[in-house]
Specification:
371 residues; mainly alpha; elongated; 51% helix; two-stranded antiparallel ribbon; 8% strand; 8 strands
């Protein structure tokens, strides 16, 4: 017993001490990191020189670059996503006649994630709040949120940035206004009597914003310099799809769209991140479907949509006195969450006798429409 305890204690000591010894023996890479921080004299944003000879500017730039390099996992994801999203943004920027550097804003804003949101209500690739999004033509409601659509949101961001540049006279100030709002920046310029971004005292977030963009620009432009070596296969490829127009006189399920395209619900949602929920409302829509979708998609969709409509008509339950959602779900042995999805209602919805609910038959395994 004593020998066993001694062996166990020795094993514990080895597990704790040897890893630290191994780390201590590894060569330090401080010199490499310091060399990576050396900034080029021609560093610029949209052609506007960054005054790195100013000690304060240099320190702020080095800080953001260090913070970005510290989170190497995140940088790898930036790089891998860059081939999926940046070429499309580059094309839009070129067509609009604005600087290519604006594409790096989408990295600082969302790390190129369509569904990321903020506590202040910002959403999507460019982190528009609802009011600004609607002002620049984006549809934002409980059915569609175009802030999550790359093309639509980039069009809005370009229009916004062009207006900000026209007002403030520099892309550095325009980007800052994009981050903090034009009214707030306008107020600070008037109060401080300074119209140079690098000399303005702003909130910490707004002071950092442009430097975060510049850090992303340096890393994305020359990943090998910072120790990131990716092969062509390492990058995420752009999503391949074709766009179709659908005119609906009543809503349909996105599952119907997926089946018509011989795809699945998730794939359709991934290709159309602006679509919210499980249904496509009445109206005319441009929908992205996989390139591999059948050439007779329109005919398949019409047939499947009619079958889906018939299916729903056959599965209507009329609410009785004393019913509630939980009791109905239990009675029909279906998940309460599924009941909410089928009927587009919330958990707090009030039921009245005579209301009609769609309920899929128990045991059908979710296969509402078959080909």
């Amino acid at each position: 017993m004593i020998r066993t305890e001694k062996y166990f204690m020795g094993l514990v000591i080895c597990l704790f001490l040897f890893p630290f010894a191994a780390i201590a023996e590894q060569p330090r890479s401080d010199s490499t990191l310091i060399s990576q921080l050396r900034l080029s004299a021609d560093l610029n944003f949209c052609g506007e020189p960054v005054p790195i000879d100013d000690a304060d500017v240099r320190e702020r730039m080095e800080k953001e670059l260090l913070l970005s390099l510290w989170d190497r996992d995140q940088v790898i994801l930036w790089l891998k996503r860059s081939r999926r999203y940046l070429p499309a943004i580059e094309k839009q920027l070129a067509e609009a006649g604005v600087p290519d550097d604006l594409k790096y804003m989408v990295i600082a804003e969302s790390a190129m994630r369509p569904h990321v949101g903020s506590p202040k209500g910002a959403m999507g690739f460019w982190q528009f709040i609802p009011e600004t999004a609607r002002r620049y033509g984006l549809l934002v409601n409980d059915k569609i949120d175009q802030r999550r659509n790359l093309t639509a949101s980039s069009t809005a961001a370009i229009a916004y940035m062009k207006e900000l540049h026209q007002e403030f006279g520099s892309w550095s100030l325009a980007a800052t206004a994009f981050n903090m709002g034009e009214e707030g920046l306008r107020a600070e310029i008037l109060a401080q009597e300074v119209d140079n971004f690098y000399r303005l005292y702003l909130s910490l977030e707004s002071q950092r914003y442009l430097f975060r963009i510049l850090a992303a620009k340096q890393i994305i432009s020359a990943p090998e310099r910072f120790g990131f070596y990716l092969s062509e296969d390492d990058y995420y490829a752009p999503r391949q799809y074709t766009s179709v127009s659908l005119t609906l006189f009543e809503e349909t399920s996105l599952t119907v769209v997926a089946k018509a395209a011989k795809s699945d619900f998730k794939h359709i949602k991934d290709l159309n991140p602006e679509l919210r929920g499980h249904y496509l409302e009445a109206g005319t829509h441009t929908i992205n479907i996989p390139e591999t979708a059948p050439t007779d998609f329109a005919g398949r969709f019409e047939a499947l949509h009619k079958a889906w409509q018939q299916y729903r008509r056959e599965r209507v339950y009329v609410v009785q006195a004393g019913d509630n959602l939980s009791l109905i779900a239990e009675r029909f042995e279906v998940p309460l969450a599924a009941l909410l999805i089928w009927n587009r209602i919330s958990l707090n919805a009030t039921l009245h006798p005579g209301d009609r609910l769609v309920i899929m038959r128990h045991g059908e395994g979710g296969r509402q429409v078959t080909e």
